[in-house]
Amino acid sequence: MPPGASKTDVSPPSSFAIDLPDTLVQRAQRGEASAFEQIYRRFERPVFTLALRLTGQREEAQDVLQDTMFKLFDRIGEFRGDSPFWGWLRQIAVNEALMRLRRRNRQPFTEDSDEVELEGHDVLLPPAAADAALLAQALDRLPDATRSVIWLYHAEGYTHEQIGGLMGKTASFSKSQLARGTRRLREMLKITQEVDSHA
């Protein structure tokens, strides 16, 4: 687990909820292959979507999915049921995706030397972000760390302290990435809207 992160502060409630019967988890913990298969089918899409949003590459997202599921099979005995199963599995997926980003960049995420003051509008995605396809295209054009912070903050509900812990950085790092990334998204989506309106 990254420095500054703990089991209690890195798994916020998710807007994506999958009801998983306790009996299914217990069967998987006993090693039943059919139970593992059912769990895989239920969580394949949300894990892949999360990995794709963090890595920005379908092939890498597929690798994250496979690595996450391998770790799920290996660690399912550690799941005690005191938190939602998706929150537990999602944490594995986030860690796998961020680890791949670090390997891809071959260096840790760098801290910003200057402090960025967040304005109220800096933490809100622009209205055009409601168009999922446009937002996905714009996110793909952002730096890895910035894209990851925006997705973890807006879509997954992590706090700046939690994101900083996951990335081995500070809350200020997360805040500055969010502010700059949101401004950049606004610029890109505004340009897209203007192009569409004149088409």
Automatic annotation (TrEMBL):
Protein name per UniProt: RNA polymerase sigma factor
Signal peptide span: none
Could you list this entry's UniProt keywords, alphabetically sorted. Sigma factor, Transcription, Transcription regulation
The family classification in the record reads:
Belongs to the sigma-70 factor family. ECF subfamily.
Which residues are in the RNA polymerase sigma factor 70 region 4 type domain? Answer: 134-185
| Cell membrane is among the record's keywords | no
* RNA polymerase sigma-70 region domain mapped to chain residues: 39-106
Keyword match Transcription = yes
Q: Name one Pfam family in it.
A: Sigma70_r4_2
Question: What InterPro entries would the database entry show?
Answer: RNA_pol_sigma-70-like (IPR039425), RNA_pol_sigma-70_dom (IPR014284), RNA_pol_sigma70_r2 (IPR007627), RNA_pol_sigma70_r4_t2 (IPR013249), RNA_pol_sigma_r2 (IPR013325), RNA_pol_sigma_r3/r4-like (IPR013324), WH-like_DNA-bd_sf (IPR036388)
